[in-house]
Design a protein that fits this description.
72% helix; single chain; 4 helices; mainly alpha; 111 residues
Length: 111
């Protein structure tokens, strides 16, 4: 069997390792929530980008969560007065409910 690159489970392990290393750096260096969230979002989006380059199927949920983390990090860094977390939670929940109702059950792929 020919080596076809990094297997998806190895890619997940690498992503998890990078996540924990980033959290350790953020905590050790006291970077704060904004930089921490931004970095986690970039890692998640980067993972989806790598999946695309490798010809693997995107995991839409993690791409969406990555975008939310990036938005949360930017929101914190720009010090907006309106709290973002409740707004994002409501929007994420609304998106999940609407997408679940709008998708034909026959089109849904089981993991």
């Amino acid at each position: 069997m020919a080596d076809e690159g990094i297997a998806p489970h190895r890619l997940n392990a690498i992503g998890s390792g990078l996540f924990f290393m980033w959290i350790g750096v953020v905590l050790f260096a006291h970077f704060g929530w904004g930089i921490g969230l931004l970095g986690v979002g970039v890692l998640m989006l980067g993972g989806q980008g790598v999946r695309t380059l490798m010809g693997l199927k995107l995991v839409t949920l993690w791409g969406d969560v990555g975008v939310l983390f990036v938005l949360g990090g930017v929101w914190d860094l720009l010090s907006f007065r309106v709290r973002l977390a409740p707004i994002l939670c409501i929007l994420a929940g609304l998106f999940l409910v609407v997408s679940a109702l709008a998708v034909n059950p026959k089109e849904m792929v089981q993991p």
